[in-house]
Amino acid sequence: MKQNLTLKKMLFISLLTAQGIILSLLEQAIPFPFAFAPGAKLGVANIITVIGLYTLSLQEVVLVVLLRTLLTALLGGTFSTLLYSSAGAAFSLLGMLLVKQLGPKRVSLIGVSATGGILHNFGQLIIASFIAKSWTVLLYLPAMSIVGIFAGIAIGISANYALNHVKILKAYREKQEM
Description:
Distance between the termini: 20 Å
Low-confidence stretches: none
InterPro entries: Hpre_diP_synt_I, Hpre_diP_synth_I
Organism: Granulicatella elegans ATCC 700633
Radius of gyration: 16 Å
Helix content: over 70%
Number of domains: 1
Keywords: Membrane, Transmembrane, Transmembrane helix
Number of helices: 7
Strand content: under 5%
Mean pLDDT: 88
Protein name: Heptaprenyl diphosphate synthase component I
Number of strands: 0
Transmembrane segments: 44-67, 79-99, 139-163
Structural class: mainly alpha
Order of helices and strands: HHHHHHH
């Protein structure tokens, strides 16, 4: 029985990872809609990260994010894509984990996601600063933070809807909350 549960968990992690990769590759194919913030994206693959935060253990969600980031860069990116997305994912995940620890009475899933949106952009700008060898790149942070907040809210609403309306996700979420 325990082996069967492990197989189910591995399958769930694999499916989340694959969905994240597909969402990332689809988003790369769409031109960015934010003229005031070139390079900004909604980050729809972060729906998978948020779902993972609320359905998986810490190690499992880290695995999903690592695999998704690495495989997306290998399938549709470059080394710089890997650098930017890894830094963004690391800052985002760490921030969302910390904010989630405040509990659902203080911060909703949507608030956790908005935190991730802001910190994802911050992580990418840190890498850009190192590459450009100038901290002036961080002057771009206010515009990117606005985009990050709204994108994070949209991602949070989507993930919240999925967690409450998709039967299998709802079951995993309830099991995680026990």
